[in-house]
Amino acid sequence: MPDTLTPPSIPTVPVTPAVLDGLRAIVGDKGLILDDQGKEPFVRDWRGTLVGSAAVVVRPANTEEVSKVVKLCHEHGIAIVPQGGNTGLMGGATPYPMHSGILLSLGRMNKVIEVDAVGYSMTVEAGCILQTLQETAASHDRFFPLSLGAQGSCLIGGNLSTNAGGVQVLRYGNARNLVMGLEVVLPNGDVWNGLRSLKKDNTGYDLKHLFMGAEGTLGIITKAVLKLWPAPKDVATAWLAVRDPQAAIEILSEAHAASDDNVGSCELMSRAGTDVVLRHIPGLQDPLKADTDWFLLLEWSSSRPKADGPPGSMGGMSEKLEQFLAEQFETGRVLDAVIAQNEAQARNMWTIRESVAPASRAEGGGLSYDVSVATSKVPVFIDKGLKAVLEILPSIRPYPLGHIGDGNIHFSFMSPVGMDRETLGQYSPAITRAVNDLVRDMAGSISAEHGIGIDKIDELAHYRSKVELDTMRSLKRALDPKNIMNPGKILRL
């Protein structure tokens, strides 16, 4: 646990032999994990920094079993930690060390129930792996746009519970924008069936939005109706050396019209961030050996098949992008650029962007802040934020990056050369306050896409208004009066 975190008060009712027998009657022996070695991957977050406990890991096979398990726990006041793929970054799916209840894993609930290619929707269980859903949509000539680094192991239920972001938010929105309906097991075990594939449904409160982003504190998402789009047929990917972050947002601003509103992704990378990836991740090539501190990964895509251009031209989106970049060279915003000529080159560019997290772990200790400001304010935030942090620790090594098209910056720092984690931790509170104060002053968010979980529970309490916090607590108490559903996450009650 972070040194500064005081654990909240959570229910500590134990799982008795009688309750364990009740759980076994619901899910069978194959749905229970009781030994410490088997439980370890579930009670430890993927970063390895948070380790909790659970009396038992329960792995139900369907919604009926989830409902029965939750009703049993509700009857006895036993705390439940719901978990998807356990790839979160804020400890939202990790139990506290004093957790004496169950961890409920949705990994066995992995069926694609229906693909409605005509209606552009897909109904799925919460335990489906994100990449599997992307591939399923593609097999029907459709596109599911949620895309993030952990897509090979994260589960859609966890994605929705954390309102995941990723690299396509610029065009398609966060996870909550990709959902038409949900099925949710409430804290008392009741099942709310909101699996409606409707684009129009103006019948009072839109309940599904309560549960997306709630990190399992209000209920357990068990199924979802997801929106689909036409599959991209013409994709152009480019790696740009740019003058600075201001040039990057100006390029993006003009790219919308130049691409006929087909900008799919726009990712800012620093030279330091690119270098750390190339240093630690084998098999990658530097797309541009340019002498600049800033790069932009820009992708345009269209659902129209690529049109052939004149002989010798790239045609389609690539030709449009080439013309646009030539114009940006003239303005001085773009210093150098390369457009991927094939899928392998495009994949190389994307792997550099997606490998920052594992590369930074290999580099050693560091600090990272998942923040957002208005897109037009990104350059000012980066400039002021770097100055504020370097005043506190001049030898720290910055490598900011992020989804600048939606204003999300991963404001990241490698520890000074030779400094251990313990020493860096002494600087962390002052740096955190400097960064988050700047975010507040610029009307931004201290958590753009990673959520609150355990790690930011006190930061949320510090920066959100009393009205907001009290309203969230009212919702929590109304739906979960016994405080058994992922207790101690997001809010202190």
Explained architecture:
The longest helix is centred in the last third of the chain and has 21 residues, at 421-441. The protein has a five-stranded antiparallel β-sheet. It is α+β, with helices and mostly antiparallel strands and 493 residues long. Helix 1 (17-27) packs antiparallel against helix 3. Among the domains are: 112-230, Uridine Diphospho-n-acetylenolpyruvylglucosamine Reductase, domain 3 (2-Layer Sandwich); 234-354, Alpha-Beta Plaits; 364-441, Alpha-Beta Plaits (2-Layer Sandwich), CATH 3.30.70. It is built from 16 helices and 19 strands. The protein has helices spanning 17-27, 36-43, 63-76, 130-139, 156-161, 169-172, 208-211, 245-258, 271-280, 316-331, 343-354, 356-363, 378-392, 421-441, 457-463, 466-479, and strands at 32-33, 56-58, 80-83, 102-105, 112-116, 121-125, 142-143, 179-185, 191-194, 220-227, 229-230, 234-242, 263-270, 294-302, 334-339, 366-372, 397-398, 401-403, 408-414. The model has no long low-confidence stretch (mean pLDDT 94).
- Low-pLDDT residue intervals, each spanning 5 or more residues: none
Tell me the number of strands.
19
Compute the average pLDDT: 94
* Oligomeric state of this protein: single chain
Named CATH architecture of the domain at 234-354: 2-Layer Sandwich
The major sheet is characterized as:
5 strands, antiparallel
What percent of residues are in strands?
15-25%
CATH class of the domain at 234-354: Alpha Beta
* Radius of gyration, whole Å: 23 Å
Fraction of residues in helix? 25-40%
> What is the helix tally?
16
Given the helix and strand composition, which structural class is it? Answer: alpha+beta
**Dominant shape:** globular
Q: What name is given to the CATH topology of the domain at 234-354?
A: Alpha-Beta Plaits
Spatial strand order of the main sheet: 5-6-10-8-9
